[in-house]
Write a structure and sequence with these properties.
Bound molecules: 2-acetamido-2-deoxy-beta-D-glucopyranose
Number of domains: 1
Number of helices: 4
Strand content: 15-25%
Oligomer: single chain
Order of helices and strands: EEEHEEEEEHEEEEEEEEEHHEE
Length: 341
């Protein structure tokens, strides 16, 4: 089976009867740091948007207790001090300068400052019962999905579920594409990243930050496909949604004359195939396992929650000082669309 188009669920009405861990995390910081792929590097090669616990820094020693190191989190569930991050989207103007595309909250999360929506799922999105037993990640666990060098459909298909949705309204979910939408999108562009769900049961990380995880052997997580013998432990499906407010860049006169689209990732990819994301597990105690064992939707009695004001207030300070918000001549780190300086 190929990567699948299945997420067209509008998560609004009767939220209290649904079972699905879906929650907002406000923006923690925009910074050129990447403690997973480039630990210790200040700056890391490209710019990221990061959410979660405020102990986030360039190092993130896996032996440190993340919940203890943080004093707050930007996530709604206040026992979640994990860090979640992706690259940042830029608009490239006709005169060659770049402007950062702001993020907006997802459907149902008005008032949250940017950031992303995080899901942990026991079953495919259509099955709101979420009845399957899944294992929570362990302290020190981390993973990555995607390929920063992917520039073709073939390069990205092996990841199955790194997608874009051209948002007509905030609730649009289909169709999904593996590359940037080719036309202006009224309400913005949503990027979705679904991580693999089968763990080798031993390694908290691996050299490429992916080999300790696998997709199901046949079928998919959504269809209940079995995990391979090499990666037998069925985990919850971690899934990010990030919404980029491209609406102010929708004037076709400002778009490239050659018919291409004007958006580019902070590392220079203007195809969109190099969509990628990073995760450092950091839930307190057994909070995540508890939540997975007692499925809930936005109101989770098994978890402690905080309000938007508390989430937004946890925002941190950027470590790498550079202009990321002007009309800049090159992307932070010296990238240009499609090549590196
Ligand atoms: C990151 O934080 C840890 C403690 O939380 C600290 O030991 C380490 O020096 C910090 N690293 C950097 C680069 O700031
Ligand atoms: C480049 O184009 C943008 C968008 O039209 C504009 O705001 C900016 O001032 C221009 N910069 C230069 C140096 O012309």
């Amino acid at each position: 089976m190929k990567w699948t188009l299945f997420a067209s669920v509008v998560l609004l009405a009767s939220a209290h009867v649904l079972a699905l861990l879906r929650f907002p995390c406000a923006q923690l910081v925009l910074d050129r740091l990447d403690p997973l792929v480039n630990p210790g590097a200040i700056p890391s090669p490209h710019l990221h948007q990061i959410v979660g616990g405020n102990s986030f820094n360039a190092t993130m020693d896996p032996k440190k207790d993340m919940p203890k190191e943080s004093t707050c989190t930007t996530c709604q569930f206040s026992e979640d001090f994990s860090n979640y991050w992706t690259a940042i989207l830029y608009f490239k103007a006709k005169n060659g300068t770049y402007k950062r595309v702001p993020q907006i909250p997802n459907s149902g999360f008005d008032g949250v400052n940017g950031g992303m929506t995080v899901y942990y799922m026991q079953d495919g999105l259509y099955d709101f019962a979420q009845k399957s037993k899944v294992t929570a990640f362990q302290p020190g666990f981390r993973m990555y999905i995607g390929d920063v060098n992917a520039r073709s459909r073939k390069d990205v298909e092996r990841f199955r579920q790194l997608t874009y949705t051209c948002l007509d309204t905030i609730n649009t979910r289909d169709p999904q594409t593996l590359d940037f939408p080719a036309k202006p999108c009224k309400t913005g562009i949503m990027t979705a990243l679904r991580f693999p769900t089968c763990w080798d049961g031993k390694n908290l990380d691996s050299p490429d930050h992916m080999a300790h995880m696998s997709y199901p052997e046949s079928g998919s997580f959504e269809t209940g496909g079995p995990c391979p013998a090499t990666h037998p432990v069925r985990m919850g499906q971690l899934f990010y949604e990030v919404i980029w407010d491209t609406s102010k860049f929708n004037n076709k006169d400002d778009w490239p004359a050659d018919g291409s689209q004007p958006f580019v990732w902070s590392f220079g990819d203007s195809t969109g195939y190099a969509n990628h994301g990073d995760y450092l597990f950091g839930w307190q105690g057994d909070a995540l396992q508890r939540a997975l064992d007692n499925p809930c939707y936005q109101t989770c009695t098994t978890l402690k929650s905080q309000n938007n004001a508390a989430m937004n207030k946890c925002a941190g300070k950027r470590v790498v000082n550079e202009d990321i918000d002007g009309w800049i001549k090159e992307l932070p780190g010296g990238y240009q669309a499609n090549y590196r300086k």
